[in-house]
Amino acid sequence: MGRLSCEVVAVGTELLLGQIVDTNSSWIGEQLALAGIDSYYQTKVGDNPTRIKKVLEQALNRSDVVIVCGGLGPTQDDLTRDVIAEVMGVDLVTDDDLVERISAIFGGRNRPMPSNNLRQAQVPRGAEVLSTMPGTAPGLKAVIQGKTLYAVPGVPWEMKQMVNEDILPDVRKQAGITAIIQSKTIRTWGESESGLAERLAGEIERLDREGGATIAFLASGIEGLKVRITVKGDSESEVASILDTEAAVIASILGDELIFSYDDQTLEEVILDLCRKQGLTLGLAESLTGGLIGSRITSIPGSSDVFNGSIVAYSGRSKKNILGVPEVPTVSKEAVEAMAEGACRVLNSDVSVAVTGEAGPNSLEEEVGRVWMATSVGGVVESSSVKWPFDRERIRQFTTITVLNALRLRLLRAP
Amino acid sequence: MGRLSCEVVAVGTELLLGQIVDTNSSWIGEQLALAGIDSYYQTKVGDNPTRIKKVLEQALNRSDVVIVCGGLGPTQDDLTRDVIAEVMGVDLVTDDDLVERISAIFGGRNRPMPSNNLRQAQVPRGAEVLSTMPGTAPGLKAVIQGKTLYAVPGVPWEMKQMVNEDILPDVRKQAGITAIIQSKTIRTWGESESGLAERLAGEIERLDREGGATIAFLASGIEGLKVRITVKGDSESEVASILDTEAAVIASILGDELIFSYDDQTLEEVILDLCRKQGLTLGLAESLTGGLIGSRITSIPGSSDVFNGSIVAYSGRSKKNILGVPEVPTVSKEAVEAMAEGACRVLNSDVSVAVTGEAGPNSLEEEVGRVWMATSVGGVVESSSVKWPFDRERIRQFTTITVLNALRLRLLRAP
């Protein structure tokens, strides 16, 4: 048997009309790739039974496994159940177990169950109900002429739980994939994608030759540039060990100047952790970012034990009155260093970052894209300047990640 | 002839792997709907010539018009041109005009043209080059067995310009749509989707009966709830007049308390405009939003002539020291009103907004979701409280739009 292929069908007229962007299929595609399952097509189709049927039949014809997403809700527009029954050539039967589970969910919420929710307890005869059921919409599995069709609701968190817990393990079993696949993401800032590829060229060549792991790059804007290592193996412990070894090799090549974190940890979390460990509080002085840096820091739960606040001094007068910036050009080394000092003083903070610059589109004093950034650690202020070749929003975002990374490096080196 | 149908095919392995979410198809779908063109399917396919060919042939079989998006770049992975030639049964020929245009673009940028950019000058024999060409990738039009196939690059701004300027007018002509279609979006805050539907029920019924316009709702989170009016008619002036009349009817029902703007104008822009007209400067005092309100205000170019800054006072000490908040609970009427007064005073601002609350997930002093908001206009502070049933990020976002709308209402009523 060759490699198993799986395709995704997303059902919903609102997807075709562009009212909702279909991020479900993208997410499932990523999980399939990671699980080692080939995926060649993804289709969106509206809430029309004839067209849904055509699309499902074609998908079952050209792929081994089909995941259909959406159209499992309680309304008359939710047609996926009915169409699957038609494709299978069977009728819908009420599943008593499901009636109970759905009633219990509504009972648990202390409100009467709308009668059309019972539509969700109907199952094509011969189809299985997936055991994972986080909401009121059951997922389904049907085997049709040797191919497998899964149906999941369009609600992202319900869909993701079913795919992770029921569908992916099942598909990997069908694919005869006993191999364990794991990946680790190394998150970097300060080097371009081609620069990273150049630094890692020797290691990538070695892996191409000897196997063991594969490496991919992914540019993610304000989230940094990601290096993803993927390892296949026969046992959990073997894979984890190869993955750790490979991550260590790459870490030794790139160094902690470029690498700020692993997997889902953000740069903001890293900085909060570094401050917390060293018992330091953080203050900001923002001009062109307008509060963006503070907004990102405070998006992390628990940031309040480190973060004291931010002085968003947008006007020259605020810079002078609140932060004590002297009579110097707004976008200058002197201004940004005074801002960093002012942030520590005014916000009673041990460390700070400060930014001032010209985000455009029209320049007031300085050329558009010119930004000064400063950090203050242990009472010592360091500053640097950059000229971004970007638009307003990217100038603000790249400034944010760059200055936060500068602070990270100083905290890392702090005694 | 029945109604014309058009489908979209997006080409790119990165779309299937979930590395990029396919927002192009969603955007095209929305434009087609608005232009009165039916759209039943959207397909994603990887960079594989056999599978691209199958998908294009099927699309041409079941729809009247096909727009294929992506795969027109200069690299060997860009296969759309080659596959279209194959579907047409012709060879690729070099278009001398295109060679000149592409060379001119590179000449204009003062750098040598990579030779593989000449791949982009190759056109399937018999296909037309679209006249709109904002980048180096030309768009194509081919008539295949009575059906029309358009090819556009995957770069969003290049794609959008070609679709708007060349493809939509052309498709509408083919569809025999001489009717003009225009829409207007009314942006609201302060009422749920079902609440809006209830308020507008009488008008929607009247329109269902008498025609003239259609109305649709679209929930857009921090961007508010949108009411879209769409009108078809025979002439620009007739349509514009019906649209204006209908917008006025809906505006009179909903009132300017709920309606904050029209079409693409954001709430932040409205507030900056109101302040600018009245010669007022704006300051903020933010706690749970951590800089989010300032970040959104300053994302608007030119905000610096109104916006003085924001005091992000996250710690109790910052609230006290900088803003002069007395010894009261952090999440309270007294605290938020002192913050609003402090923002005006410290930032030398005429008007201000202030927010303090518990964004969770763990509560410190108050129940999670409890938020106090205040506005100061003309030296008079008004405040109110709400308990959001949301997660951390939505609590921060709903707080932002709610307090900005409260400020808008006060500026609107100001003498």
Please sum up the structure shown.
Chain A has 415 residues and is of the alpha/beta class.
Give structural notes.
Two copies of one chain form a homodimer. Chain A is α/β, with parallel strands linked by helices. Helix content of chain A is 42%, strand content 24%. The first copy, chain A, has three domains: 6-174, MoaB/Mog-like domain (Molybdenum Cofactor Biosythetic Enzyme, Chain A), CATH 3.40.980; 180-262, 2-Layer Sandwich (Alpha-Beta Plaits); 267-413, Alpha-Beta Complex (Maf protein), CATH 3.90.950. In chain A, the strands form four sheets. In chain A, strands 2-1-3-8-7-6 form a six-stranded mixed beta sheet, sandwiched between helices. In chain A, helix 3 packs across helix 4 (80-88) and helix 10 (267-278) packs parallel to helix 14 (392-413). The longest helix of chain A is centred in the middle third of the chain and has 23 residues, at 236-258. Chains A and B meet through helix 2, strand 2, helix 3, helix 11 and strand 14 of A and helix 2, strand 2, helix 3, helix 11 and strand 14 of B. Strand 14 (307-313) of chain A pairs antiparallel with strand 14 (307-313) of chain B.
Structural class of chain A: alpha/beta
Q: What composes the largest sheet of chain A?
A: 6 strands, mixed
Biggest protein-protein interface?
A: A-B, 71 and 71 residues
Count of individual helical segments of chain A: 14
Assembly level: homodimer
Radius of gyration over C-alpha positions of chain A, nearest whole angstrom? 27 Å
Terminal Cα span of chain A? 59 Å
What strand line-up does the widest sheet of chain A have? Answer: 2-1-3-8-7-6
Helix share of residues of chain A?
Answer: 40-55%
Shape field of chain A: elongated
Low-confidence stretches of chain A: none
CATH superfamily of the largest domain in chain A: MoaB/Mog-like domain
List the domain count of chain A as a whole number.
3
CATH topology name of the largest domain in chain A: Molybdenum Cofactor Biosythetic Enzyme, Chain A
Strand content of chain A: 15-25%
CATH class label of the largest domain in chain A: Alpha Beta
In total, the number of strands of chain A is 17
From the 3D coordinates, which CATH architecture of the largest domain in chain A would you assign? 3-Layer(aba) Sandwich
Mean pLDDT of chain A: 91
